[in-house]
């Protein structure tokens, strides 16, 4: 019996170890009772997959994809968590539990679903029948990407830890649970999940209907496919632009909208919340311009030191200083207490630190004030002085004083043990690091690489520099060097604060994991820490986008924009608008696409990427007059930017392809190719278009072969050739090229993984 949601094989998949269904047949008894409970819960018949075959372990003869993949396409996955279930060598763990996480993370709903009451839950509904060891719990929560929330069927007496049965007496059970009550909880949880999924499905159907109405002249099946030229030529830029830019946050930005009063602090202490803090750049009030570097340097050092305290939540300089610049305060001399108050209120911080650098004879004096963000009341002033070479030690001392004041004086509890210091021993290493950051933010990656390398040459133990150096190389397209430095900081991640560790795990997943799910998992962990960080929502939305889950991506990407708007500032660049615009276009939601474009043009009125997106939207709505106006404007910009005729022509092909005008697109791709017949990128663009759109796969394969000969180690060109071979039915040969492409890719690529899956399915179906 198929699922009540079209496209799914079963409603529920039960995963368990055969060892747990021997003797009294606990799993079979549980399923029998669950079926009865579901009949009284649902109007429809609910299908359950429950395999009673006595297999276990990993055997070479198991054809997992052929036997289980279809069955795992279910709405709810129920693992029976026992002492034996958390075993990476077992069939249930590897080919059911982990396989479902992989599949569900990539389907139309995603692994998590919004419930009717507004809460969010996982489609994995664990049933726990034994208390677990600490090791098993850690293993399980690592795969789940969060805390284990299970419905327990455990009977306990002193010295007893066994599965709860119908016959057990609840009055003797230390857990006081009854079997039938727990089964009812399971049925209700399933009902909530399926209701949530069906509501998402309804929204998706409405969207597709609207899309169909507006695009009836085009082939619907083809229009549903993504604009592949966009993905192949721009996707990698978006990955580096988002995945690389996003991690510049590096430590979670944790905020709570309260003020520092004693009653508020008591509430913070009792609720487990922490004081949020903004540190502004320190103004250089001397006439010595050589001290200007310490305006940012003291700020950065204070933030890093304070961030190590688990009792404080500290905004990072990227957000604080970007907000200052967006409000026109690029000159630090303009920063006054009222300005800093405005900034801290925009960030919903409790307090802010405002300070100056002054001369005291031959020494420098660092003055700072700890101020209430709401009332501008000065809680405490601090002053330290010393020689210039002692600036790092002075700021470390200042950080300790501030922590003592906030945590001991206000929260009345001792400071938690300090983490290992992450600041450099050398003042020169720190100077190079600060200058490298400035170069990076100015998009001068070559200078950034030079400065970060110089910092590490002076002090190789300053491990934060590894991270930034990796990002600089990645922006330059030097993925081998980027990966090298990523691995270096990953190996030292245990020396880092908790939030930073998650960011490091996230960027490591982009390079090394075989699934977008790992990247998404770490992004969601950061989101759970604080949902007021725009770039964290961006990472989640971007991961969903890369997995073609546009309905999941759009809300997260829009949340990014909403947070920037609440700060009364614009996003850092137009890319924050472009991705949700593209996602809306791909699901045919032109109304929302138009709304986002309108907002985007207010912030970036002459941005060429936004003009291009508007041209595509106008063409899609058959407003050729408007489309031609925007195309003409775009062509003028491209010519002024010294784009070649071939590049401009290829760009026109992209516009018309994404708008569904495939004949016009083909004409432009062919013209671009004719202008640069030896350019492998031009060859590949035309080849992929002919193959992927099924226009002329034979010609496309011939062109792809030519591109590969010109550049045999391009994973993009190898992917195109493999895809062409697949379209012509040469599955075994296709797989060889696709797997070679996979081995050469610098970071995980979802489209390539889909191509490989399609080819493997075709090969399996031949057998």
Description:
The chain is of the alpha/beta class and 767 residues long. The protein has six domains: 10-203, Toll/interleukin-1 receptor homology (TIR) domain (Rossmann fold); 262-418, ABC-type transport auxiliary lipoprotein component (Rossmann fold), CATH 3.40.50.10610; 431-512, Tetratricopeptide repeat domain (Serine Threonine Protein Phosphatase 5, Tetratricopeptide repeat), CATH 1.25.40; 513-605, Tetratricopeptide repeat domain (Serine Threonine Protein Phosphatase 5, Tetratricopeptide repeat, Alpha Horseshoe); 606-659, no CATH class; 677-767, Tetratricopeptide repeat domain (Serine Threonine Protein Phosphatase 5, Tetratricopeptide repeat, Alpha Horseshoe), CATH 1.25.40.10. The chain has 31 helices and 15 strands. Strands 10, 11, 12, 13, 14 and 15 form a six-stranded mixed β-sheet that branches. Strands 2-1-3-6-7 form a five-stranded parallel β-sheet, sandwiched between helices. α17 (498-512) packs antiparallel against α18 (516-529) and α27 (680-692) packs antiparallel against α28 (697-710). The chain is globular and about 85 Å long.
